[in-house]
Design goal:
The protein has 422 residues and is of the alpha/beta class. The strands form 3 sheets. Strands 4, 5, 6, 7, 8, 15 and 16 form a 7-stranded mixed β-sheet that branches. Helix 7 runs parallel beside helix 8 and helix 7 crosses helix 13. It is built from 15 helices and 16 strands. The protein is 30% helix and 21% strand. The protein is globular and about 65 Å long.
Length: 422
Amino acid sequence: MFGGSFIFFFLMIRRPPRSTPLYSSAASDVYKRQVSTQSTWGLRELGMKADFSYRGVVCPKTESNVACWGAEVAKGELKRMYFKLPALQEDEVRIKVLYTGLCHSDCFKLDEEWGKNVTWPVVPGHEIVAEIEKVGSNVKKFKPGDQVAVGVFRDCCGDCEFCHTGDDQLCSASIYKWTYDPYLGGYSTHMQLKSGFVFHLPKSIPQSKAAPILCAGATVFSPLKRWCKPGGRCGVVGIGGLGHMAIQFANKMGMKVVAISTSMSKEKEAMELGAKEFVCSKNEEDMKRICTKDKLDLLLNTAFIPDVTNYMYAIKAGGVFIQTALPEVTKPTIFNNLDLVANQKIFTGSIVGSRLEVEQCLDFCDKFGVCPIVENYKWAEFPKAYARLHSGQARYRCVVDVASTWDNLQNLFTSTLKFFIK
């Protein structure tokens, strides 16, 4: 009924059993270099600084090998910073950042809305398109010049129950598994990290648009893949950075997508992205309809909504509610427990995806032409792009062109031009 493309999709998403970890059973380099998580937090609570020099040290511009945009304090403005990266390890790659996507979780991190366990200064960024510049002696998968992508994670222990089953995004032992904090993220000209957390970028995906796939894309692709019901009705709440990707994925997976938004202005674009129906959540009749006769098999919520009771009512008995939005830690989610239990509904969360799922997400985008809608900015416009992101006005993701617009290139061009004029 759905054709060969869906046979391809289901063959692609099958996860092979893993009898061995994806990584060496030895603790990660990060783990070896750090004391326990508890004692590191204790240092911060006492106002003492742990040694994070292995991530790179702040230095004058003339001594640096990486330029960044970062923040020095919570809710502080983005400032230019310069670091010197440490020596490349044998299992690492050094990358030249080509494009960086800005994610709203960067705002949560810099505003300390997820807690105060932050190592300042912070250089955010976990949606990265790059070029391999240098490889460690043990790296065989990449070579200089390869076009690659980097997402939300840079490490896992390789030896916990989740790493053994391929769910390395849930690793319970790696202290600093996230791409940034304390490490330098993608708001920078160069990075280095373990090659196992770098992905080949399919050539068909435009580099200037690809970066958001690594976070926004993978965040919604993974749970949709997990709970996909071809032919079923799939609601997507919030037509923004995550939602506009979710509509495309769910449609290409063979589901009938119902786009749900507070704004009628999103209807036309939602339908163009693949939605079959549009519901304005401020319209009582629309909401009543999907909560009674036109219920959903699956609903993916990408919006910061504290009370999701009515959205849970819109799901069929036995249906699934997927929460991907991450509001402030002080704002719990509210729903009707009787409805949940009596109708055997499933309420589940999803955090990005494993490395395997990120690869599958990139392959899916390559195969089915899924692509983010982005606004592009220059290196000097990082603060402008961040302000646009912070205000919630981006359509639908902000991406900075790093490699071709950062200051050193401009300065080099200017000085070369002056030389020839002389």
